Amino acid sequence: MKILAVDDDENIRDLLEASMAAETKHVLTTASSGPSALKIVSEESTPFDCFLLDIQMPVMNGITLCEKLRRTKGHARVPIIMLTAMSQKKYIDRAFKAGATDYVTKPFDFLELFSRISNAERLSKEQVLSKEGRSEVATLKRDLERSFAHSLSEPVEIGGVEGVVGYVTFENYIMQLSRTKLMRSHVFAVKIVNVEKVHRSLSHIAFHQLLTDIATTLSVTMSQSENLITYRGNGVFLCTTNAKSDHSQHSFEMMLNGQMAETVAARFNNERVNLSVGEAVSLMSLTRAGALFSLQTAATSAENRATDRKEVLQKMQRLVRTRKRSGLQNDMERRAYEVLLRDAMKDEPKKGLFGLSGVGLRLR
């Protein structure tokens, strides 16, 4: 694998070169600063397969360099591993938002470093295979369709939306959080109701556009600096938040559906898309593995909520059909369904932790 390591400390560069040469077959190039790294990248005929970036450097720090590399042709999805001292972990949040995929702390545990590089190598190979597969498509239309083709369960990457990262990056972010930060962090999920039907009715491109629209709405609504969003697959988005909110789970759900309604109507004709919001789940855990388990708990909450909403929507459709008829029996049936609907909707979920922004979004 072709790797570029950028660090202003000559000892670190020498250490990386020696360890790579002794333990791996990777081809390592080093640079002492961000500007020199960008110059090396611009002069290379083929893109690098992986970057190792020190966060704290003079002239241009590693986070800024990460952002610039992501905008450089051929490096939009290349794995980027940040190198940081333990005291610098507060910068990791910013690094992930800038496009980093993983991080390693100094002084290096070389077993951990090589493990992270191996993960990056697998990711790089998958991206190469994906690119080669797309290049075989005969026409531009087929190429475009194939590039967006994916199973419903696949955790599709959504690019170009602030605060939205790939699922692997999202898990890496959760794993690096300090125990103190885990204690005050929460995660909640947003689920597309009846997603199987929506996925079947839309083209691959249209479904990807729908995911992008939902991610954009979440990003704008949750514009605090430390929030991260990812798409997990099966119509489920996961969102981290530290901010307390007066909004309930139900009012946040209503707001999202209200904001999405106009977009869906404009882009997808008569397609009906409803979103369900699960309860916020604390990431507080004695282990980081326990924090990852919280992601599943949050997803399950949204899944259950989506099932409830689907049943309510079906009852509402049945009620509309019933109201079109007349007679005592139909009146009794109509009243029975009205009672069912009231029972289904009267218990508003408990208030969760949803970081919201914008004027006029305080629903009660």
UniProtKB/TrEMBL annotation:
Gene Ontology terms, MF aspect: phosphorelay response regulator activity; transcription cis-regulatory region binding
4-aspartylphosphate, modified sites: 54
Lineage: superkingdom: Bacteria
SUPFAM superfamilies: CheY-like
Listed CDD domains: REC_OmpR (cd17574)
One GO BP annotation of this record: regulation of DNA-templated transcription
Keywords: DNA-binding, Phosphoprotein, Transcription, Transcription regulation, Two-component regulatory system
GO cellular component terms listed in the entry, alphabetical order: cytosol; protein-DNA complex
Limits of the Response regulatory domain: 2-121
Gene3D superfamilies, per database record: 3.40.50.2300
PANTHER family the UniProt entry points to: REGULATOR OF RPOS, TWO-COMPONENT RESPONSE REGULATOR ORR33
Protein name in the entry: Stalked cell differentiation-controlling protein
Biological source species: Shimia thalassica
